[in-house]
Amino acid sequence: MGGHAPAAPRRETPMRLLVAEDEPVLAAQLKAALEKSGYVIDVAADGLDAEHQGLSEPYDLAVLDLGLPGRDGLSVLRAWREAGRRMPVLILTARDNWHDKVAGIDAGADDYLTKPFHQEELEARVRALLRRAGGHATADIRCGPLLLDTRQSRVLLDDAPLDLTSHEYRVLAYLLMHQDEVVSRSQLVEHIYAQDFDRDSNTIEVFVARLRRKIPPGLIQTVRGLGYRLSADAR
């Protein structure tokens, strides 16, 4: 089996996720696995906390157990949707019957998994939901000479991998996922740091300055008073 180079460590597209799961062991496993893949993860152990966090924080996706204490997952999901929260929701359920799956989809879920499940399948479904939400049909997202490979969680410049720190990667990948849009500093802060992290928006300027030294000039524009925009057309 020799002759093959070791696989590069995988880091998924930097997105902020909520994991609402009351089983402590499973919640810890999901948090550790998803963080290892590069996601920013917050955890809610009951339905009331999950509902509050989902309404108050800008999550890109939620993994939601239906059997939460305090308030069940379907009620939480309905509250999110009624309040206009549109992040993709992947529901988890131990109830393996079609009634619960239909009820979840009708309440606004985007996909579901029945326990027990393989971690790899959950991560694949998360990747697919995030791509779909971002309007991307494939795992590769290109902007001029830059290519974001969401499967291997790396950015290539002219087909060569860029050497990026974890935070530089998160900032650049988020801009690539939202290319041609103006992204504010606060948006970047909210999506690259977990809820309990000491956030400092000034660090965003540092990361952007470093990125500009690593990619061709003009790709990252500063939109005065608003934030940044990544665009191949701006060069």
TrEMBL record:
It comes from the Bacteria. GO terms for biological process: regulation of DNA-templated transcription. The modification 4-aspartylphosphate is found at D65. It holds the Pfam family Response_reg. PROSITE patterns: OMPR_PHOB, RESPONSE_REGULATORY. This is Two component response regulator. Residues 16-130 form the Response regulatory domain. The keyword Endoplasmic reticulum does not apply. One of its GO terms (molecular function) is phosphorelay response regulator activity. It comes from Castellaniella defragrans (strain DSM 12143 / CCUG 39792 / 65Phen). Residues 138-232 bind DNA. GO terms for cellular component: cytosol; protein-DNA complex. SUPFAM superfamilies: CheY-like (SSF52172). Residues 138-232 form the OmpR/PhoB-type domain. Keywords: DNA-binding, Phosphoprotein, Transcription, Transcription regulation, Two-component regulatory system.
